[in-house]
Amino acid sequence: MQVSPTVLVALNNVLRESLTAINQYFLHGRMLKNQGFKELNERIVHQSIDEMKISDKLVQRIFLLEGLPNLQDLGKLLIGENVPEILASDLKLEQRKHDVLIDAIALCERERDYVSRDLLEYIKHESEEYTDWLECQHGLLKDMGLANYLQSQT
Question: Furthest-apart CA pair in the chain: how many Å?
Answer without folding.
Answer: 55
